Amino acid sequence: MAEGLGNVVALRRKSPLRVVEPPSGAVSEWADEALMLAHGEGSEEAYAELVRRHQRGVLNFTYRMVQNRHIAEELTQEVFIALVKNAGRYEPRAKFTTYLYTIASNIISKEWARQKRRPKFFSLSAWWSSRDEGDGFDPLDHIRDERADVEQSFVRGEISEAINQALRHIPEHQREAFVLHRFQELSYDEVASVLDVPVGTVKSRVVRAERALRPHLEKYREYMT
After folding, report:
1. Which residues touch 21 (CB under 8 Å, ≥6 apart)?
2. Dmax over Cα atoms in the chain, in whole Å?
3. Which distant-in-sequence residues (6+ apart) come within 8 Å of 76 by Cβ?
4. Deepest of 84, 168, 200, 218, by most Cβ within 10 A of its Cβ?
């Protein structure tokens, strides 16, 4: 993953640089929208900050959608390459996260279409039992930290696999709305913008997803926020 994003940075450096008057304060204090505008004007520092802030969230989102670590990493790289390619055309008409996850959603939709034309992937459930790789990737953002600290690693692995298996039981359009709202913490309005559907449709999909998932996750309810 690090090597892939290194290629993205290399692509960024090939873009023409223009002088821009940056906001005051450290880059780490800038709003996402200001960072993206500065990125569009050629600021590599602003782009690096966007990657730092959002790489993990995008990776978690793509993983939940495609259920394959390697493919999720490739799609995440595509998302950030798209940021580079579209930087000069960016206009802050909505929250940056809405813009970012719209790009991610479009890329995921293309991947779903590709998957329908080829054999299904096997689930590498054993991967979840390994916690010593040190890469910081964990799709269980909403398991309470205090519980995770005291439970045995095999319990975390069991919950991880239960969530992943449960997500497979719901239609893709419901899964996407549910994950964007519950795990990526986008509002209903933001999800509606990402998916280009009415807010009422988003709410309906989330409710249907929750109802469908509940029986599969009832055993682990005490661990979930």
Report:
1. none
2. 56
3. 1, 4, 55, 58, 59, 62
4. 84
Q: Global pTM?
A: 0.68
The mean predicted confidence, pLDDT, of the chain is: 77
Domain range summary for the chain, segments of one domain joined by +: 1-122, 126-225
Q: Which two tokens stand for residue 49?
A: 């900050």
Q: For residue 140, which phi and psi values (nearest 5 degrees)?
A: -105, 55
* Fold category of 126-225 in CATH: Arc Repressor Mutant, subunit A (1.10.10)
Q: Tell me which fold the domain 1-122 belongs to.
A: Rna Polymerase Sigma Factor; Chain: A (1.10.1740)
Copy the structure tokens of residue 101.
């996850």
Q: What are 81's two structure tokens?
A: 């390459």
Q: Measuring CA to CA, how many Å separate 74 from each of 102, 126, 171?
A: 17, 21, 23
Q: Of 19, 14, 107, 92, which is closest to residue 58 (Cα–Cα)? A: 107
